[in-house]
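Objective 1b of the project was to move from sequence-level analysis to a structural picture of ligand recognition. The entry below was assembled by the postdoctoral researcher (A.K.) and checked by the PI before modelling. It contains the amino acid sequence of the target and the SMILES of the bound compound, nicotinamide-adenine-dinucleotide.
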Amino acid sequence: MKAMAYRGPYKVRVEEKARPRIEHPNDAVIRVTLAAICGSDLHLYHGLMPDTRIGHTFGHEFIGVVDEVGSSVQNLTVGDRVMVPFNIYCGTCWFCSRGLSSNCHNVNPNATAVGGIYGYSHTTGGYDGGQSQFVRVPFADVGPSKIPDWMSDEDAVLLTDMTATGYFGAQLADVVEGDTVVVLGAGPVGLVAARSAWLMGAGRVIVVDHLDERLERARTWALAETLNFTHVDDVVLEMKKQTDFLGADSVIDCVGAEADGNLTQHLTGAKLKLQGGSPVALNWAIDGVRKGGTVSVIGAYGPVPNAVKFGDAMNKGLTLRMNQAPVKRQWPRLFEHVKAGHLRPSELVTHRFPLEHIAEAYHVFSSKLDGCIKPLVIPDAA
Amino acid sequence: MSADQRAGGPATPHVAHKRRPAPTAEELRARIPGWGADLDPADRPSFPRLVWQDGRSGAHWDYPAEQPGGQRRERSVEHAQLTPVFGTAQPLHGVSGAVRRLAYSRYSEGRLAHWLLLMAGDRVDAWGAHARSVLSGRPDQPLTETGVVGEVTHHGLASRRRGNRTDARHHLLDPLVVAGPWVAAAAGAVLGVRALVRTARS
Ligand SMILES: NC(=O)c1ccc[n+]([C@@H]2O[C@H](COP(=O)([O-])OP(=O)(O)OC[C@H]3O[C@@H](n4cnc5c(N)ncnc54)[C@H](O)[C@@H]3O)[C@@H](O)[C@H]2O)c1
Ligand SMILES: [Zn+2]
Ligand SMILES: [Zn+2]
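Corresponding predicted holo structure:
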């Protein structure tokens, strides 16, 4: 089969690999029909995630058709059209039993501090991902869901991470009616977070980025106010000014480890890897939120320490909330929102690349060329 | 600025209520499809948090069957045992494998050494893979694998000129990260050859 393969920082190619096998009685093998590239994949692509091995296949946003099931699988049969949450989880460990399915303890031997994720290095368990023609799906009775008949493939694939994650980010912000919510980052996750903040009753939503075409989407798609951080001298001060010096009630960091806006932080964090990513956006969140407010962190950071302004967070009495999104928990409610037209994730798709062009896809998305917001990968386009 | 210099009195945080109240629910509902649909936290899927999940997500075991073949599988020392399910992609091998195994067996995730060793393992793995690819039938091709063709097919220059992008500055550095190992390898090869020549002459 054909699969994307990592060849070192900034380098990927398509390789011929053996089709995955059933390795556990509750495994399934899925034939991938549609996949996507996530902002998180860029952290791997740039060599920021420890234990990213040469030959690893990325991809944690994918849908497909069940091709084979293990002996104990009860809920899926060959031929089912399924969507698979990016989390790999068992359903019954201490954490899964309490709803923390993104923090499962039974799937990632390589680390206890993070759960299992498809195609996301060995630090999250060493599973090849879905930018491929086939993928091994462990705990097939737990994670995957049959795609409802009315749902399009493009909406379904974007519910496996991006949409569930953005919506989860807004939930973590604990929005109360009338709140002013600032969303840092107008990538696909930030745009969904902004749209979701309205669903939860925000009174104002302000999206911050430096890419004009994304800010344009924040206005037209997420119906938010926007702030281009390169147009102001001091973003934190600007956030204060725009909120009559109170600060935002909550700020959602949808940027993560490769934040721009401070070249020193970007170079030490994202390029030289002297910290677990550049904490520029996180620090803007801590300083831009009001005292007693909530900072929701959905952007991903590496496991190495960061230069975070923790003293400010403490003195301001902030609530910091964060996690990898427990995707499937969001689905029933999100399906209703998609059906009602409150959220149409497929509207954010800007590019569709055949798997054969995976290197070009990564380059375009990574360098944000051609107004790229969300790229899809089509394994069988040939 | 003192309060009396401000038009309309003290700024919000100096008084008890926001001076510019949010638009009313009616206004917002009219402007934003679905506004307030999840106003009640009970409608938010992850509320309340950390509660017992009766549904068990479709699992039909208390403890899952153990995946076979895990005897040599590396694991974090913070795990009491190997997890019942684990990934089998790219097993440890060679020098990078030894470095990574040391990181796992010696240091917990709380130690910087754990992560620095893993990152060192990544670089060794990449260099080894490039070296092997040259000998193999399928050498690495920096041009196609970096996808720079995207610069031509997807308007590289125009995309960066648009607006006021701040990341364009370090895009110039990105090729260094990519080419660095190649340059280093070439330099190493040159030095190695020179040393060989020198020993051969003496
Ligand atoms: N927690 C989770 O479960 C989860 C899931 C998916 C993605 N993520 C993370 O969410 C983040 C966003 O993902 P994405 O797919 O939208 O990525 P993306 O790269 O498309 O978007 C990031 C955006 O942030 C902008 N940005 C950079 N520096 C900024 C700054 N200082 N302030 C404001 N904006 C800034 C960029 O211009 C870009 O538009 C990533 O870190 C990703 O790893 C987390
Ligand atoms: Zn993701
Ligand atoms: Zn679990």
